[in-house]
Amino acid sequence: MDDALKDLGEYVAAAMPQDVIGMEVAFGELMITVRPASIVRVLSFLRDDSTCLFKVLIDLSGADYPERESRFEVIYSLLSISQNQRVRVKTNVAENVPVPTAIKVFSSAGWYERETWDMYGIYFTDHPDLRRLLTDYGFEGHPMRKDFPLTGRVEVRYDETQKRVVYDPVKLTQDFRDFDFLSPWEGMGEILPGDEKSSMDEEEGAEGP
């Protein structure tokens, strides 16, 4: 499988040498890195070329690496049903640098790009309706950025008693980006619910029959 993916990557790179700047096979998947301005051209080639036929856009997502000059990655996951292959197309962009929309190639990219804009602030040029998708009305900032603060924000809700929309401050008990995956946001003590049963079982086992 890896050899077939490598051959496919070399085929795409040879066909579009001015657009493809990197190719690798990792964890059983082909990753092709392209220039931001070339994303529409590369996606069109992967969709229409008879050797590729990646007709399905499975997902479009972002990633944030604040330490890099080109801070953001935009990743397109494609599927070829006829060839039974998958490929990921990646492009790197700096903050405030737009990416051409892929809607003309894959209509499903519309909502994916809205979500990526909402979460990361990555702007897609020529998008017909680039509005926030997941956050509240009037929300400021982009929650999936690594430098997004966990406190000092507000949430919007409808108050039944006041019969109007109200803004409440959001404050999470954990420190900035210091996640404790064993406890919920409201925090808890050292003993988690259910631990007392484990202690009782150990005591019964120690006593024996």
Structure explained in plain terms:
The chain folds into two domains: about 1-130, Beta Polymerase, domain 2; about 150-190, no CATH class. Strands 1-2-5-4-3 form a five-stranded mixed β-sheet. Strands 6-7 form a two-stranded parallel ribbon. Strands 8-9 form a two-stranded antiparallel sheet. Helix content is about 25%, strand content about 30%. It has helices at about 1-15, 40-50, 110-120, 195-205; strands at about 20-25, 30-35, 55-65, 70-80, 85-95, 100, 125, 150-160, 165-170. It has about 210 residues and is α/β, with parallel strands linked by helices. The radius of gyration is 23 Å and the shape is globular. About 20% of the residues are buried. A hairpin with a 4-residue loop joins strand 4 and strand 5 (about 85-95). The termini are far apart. The protein is built from four helices and nine strands. The mean pLDDT is about 85.
Keywords:
alpha/beta, 2 domains, 9 strands, two-stranded parallel ribbon, Beta Polymerase, domain 2, 209 residues
Describe how the helices and strands are arranged:
Blueprint: H1 2-15, E1 20-26, E2 29-34, H2 39-48, E3 56-64, E4 72-80, E5 85-93, E6 99-100, H3 109-120, E7 124-125, E8 151-159, E9 164-171, H4 195-207
What proportion of the residues is helical, as a percent range?
10-25%
Rg over alpha carbons? 23 Å
> Domains counted in the coordinates: how many?
2
Query: How many strand units?
Result: 9
CATH-derived architecture of the largest domain: 2-Layer Sandwich
CATH superfamily of the largest domain: NADH:ubiquinone oxidoreductase Nqo5 subunit
Distance between the termini: 56 Å
Biggest sheet, strands in spatial order? 1-2-5-4-3
Give the strand content: 25-35%
CATH topology descriptor of the largest domain: Beta Polymerase, domain 2
What is the overall shape? Answer: globular
Listing every helix as H and every strand as E from the N terminus to the C terminus, the arrangement reads HEEHEEEEHEEEH
pLDDT < 50 runs, ≥5 residues:
none
CATH class category of the largest domain: Alpha Beta
Task: Give the structural class.
Answer: alpha/beta
What do the pLDDT scores average to? 85
Number of helical stretches of at least 4 residues:
4
Q: Please give the largest β-sheet.
A: 5 strands, mixed
